Amino acid sequence: MKLLARIALAILAISVPGCASPNVGSLANSPVTMRIGYFPNITHSQAMIGIADGTFQRALGDNVKLDAKVFNAGPSAIEAMFAGQLDLTYIGPNPAINGYVKSKGEALRIIAGATSGGAVLVVRNDAGITSAADFRGKKIASPQLGNTQDVALRAWLMRQGFKLKEQGGDTQVIPTENPNILTLFLKKEIDAAWVPEPWGARLVREANGIVFLDERDLWDKRQFVTAHIIVSTKFLKDHPDLVRCWLAAHVELTQRINADPVSAKQKLNTEI
Question: From CA 244, how far away is CA 15, in angstroms rounded?
Fold first, then answer.
């Protein structure tokens, strides 16, 4: 998977005056709790590595307490942000757009790109699926209703001419948490799954699955947003300097991961 530094305000964020360092103290004048969301997926590499190795904490300073929350997929993270329980999260584009629309543009802002690629459609090796037509009547899992892979899966099936079960057809999409997808795959209770990494690789390695489709192949130049960063509008208004410094650390992490992918993979596997 290629990490891309397609980041809003990146040039400004790389060296933002006032961001904390071990010798500078703290950016915040009074204690602030910053509630962060991410998923244990490869597409959220910067979040996992940066929280684990202290990169974000060093950038924000001692007066900022990071409260990291782990989610399975985007819709649940959006619900947490709507409930005032989350300030910033790594998330896929579809839940972010849905959250923006549902709140009439008030609840959140997309502030940075994070990753491109890292989503695959995997089929059971004994499900009898060798072409797109073979998905008729099959059961295909996605991580959560309305998450980015769920939307991609439904759109792809519609383009193949299938009607889903809820529309009177015979092909079924089953939104299920990623760990449960692996279990259902092993029990042969689903035929395929559209998932982010590392779940695609796990379905192949642990359940003898076969990659039927790499989502990159559906996009121009094989590039598409798998994850980006959103922040609650209220937190952005109240703490713009903290958001800038988070972005500076995010850029640093993106560059570091791309420069030394072997070390990054080791750290990421440990966190996952």
Answer: 10
